[in-house]
Amino acid sequence: MALENPVIQQALTDSFGSAVSDFQQIHDILTFEVAADSISEVMLFLRDDATLRFNFLTTLCGMHFPDASTDRQFAVVYHMHNWIDNVRIRIKCYLNAKNPQIDTVSSIFLSANWQERETYDFFGIIFKGHPQLKRILNMDEMVSFPMRKEFPLEDGGRTDKDDRFFGRTTDNC
Amino acid sequence: MSDSKIITNAEAPEGYSGEGFFATKLSDVVGMARANSLWPLPFATSCCGIEFMATMASHYDVARFGSERMSFSPRQADMLLVMGTIAKKMAPILRQVYEQMAEPRWVISVGACACSGGIFDTYSVLQGIDKVIPVDVYVPGCPPRPEQILDGIMRLQDMVRTESVRRRSSPEYTELLASYNIK
Predict the structure, then answer these.
(1) Mutating which of A118, A139, A141, A166 best tests the B interface, going by the most B Cβ atoms within 10 A?
(2) pTM of the entire structure?
(3) What is the pLDDT along chain B (183 residues), one digit of tens a residue?
(4) What residue ranges do the domains of chain A occupy?
């Protein structure tokens, strides 16, 4: 018998109550929100529970919503995969823009190590307890977190690029 | 392509010849020798590098122009060919490679990305390698065909052939390097 979404939802609400919320199915994947301070316990439960068995962290990434209210401007999204029943879930943790911090899950899944570094590199989200939280793709001297919406995508030092040829409307020529 | 024909022996420079002697300028002889044995150092990071592989292989055969030996050590190369997108994180490495080359050294920037950043108008990509090292010849194209790369090499040969032997110790050259903060 395959693992059904209501079973996952019931098991999580029984164990964590209001820390898990907003269950919905988006593009065939059960998606829900977890309070940022309980992500480690929820993920450990999902991995170790005898019926849930989400043994694989597919990916994690950051998101930025500059127009949302201050306590929901950043999010970390986790995708997990149960290899035994072939079921996937998507977890979202919203963070406060003043202090975007969340516990690391690299102690639960080692694969999260580099992915959390990448999320820090591009969004400036701090993963508490991460063994080596430093930039991974961008150069170390960089001061901005380039995937945050307030930072311009273009290189400020460019001299011979015409915005019209890059699908932008602002005129720099 | 430029109109020079393929020759197996380098043409003698301008000079006076008589019975049993030939007199010419030292810088012409040195220029001829340098231009006909430019050792390339390929610095290939993306698709332009693939075009260069065709350029150096048998069909286009860059060896016809005296570049039979690809040098993968910057210390034994004359001509740095930068082919592909250079990320800003790569820029110090490119610079270090350039600094490790012995004088005289020349640089060809192959392709739109190396010349100007190309389509990558973004925070992570160097907007042209001439922001970090001096460039002698720019080869446009995305990617350029092997003929264009060969043409770029031949243009550089023209420059090398006519370069003064004193250029590398001239104040202008020192100033050029100083503007890139290379000592």
Answers:
(1) A139
(2) 0.80
(3) 566 666 567 778 888 989 999 999 998 999 999 999 999 999 999 899 999 999 999 999 999 888 888 888 999 999 999 999 999 999 999 999 999 999 899 999 999 999 988 888 888 899 999 999 999 999 999 999 999 999 999 999 999 999 988 898 999 999 999 999 887
(4) 18-146
Distance (Å, rounded) from C-alpha A70 to C-alpha A100?
Answer: 10
Q: How far apart are CA B114 and CA B126, in angstroms?
A: 8
CB contact under 8 A, A155 and B127: yes
CA distance B126 to chain A (A): 8
Is B89 in Cβ contact with A155 (below 8 Å)?
no
Q: Which two tokens stand for residue A108?
A: 């639960």
- In 10 A of CB B122, how many CB atoms? 17
| CATH 3.10.310.40 is the classification of domain A18-146 | no
Domains of chain B: 39-179 (3.40.50.12280)
B131 touching A (Cβ < 8 Å): yes
Helices (H), A3-73: 5-16, 39-48
B181: its two tokens: 């903060």
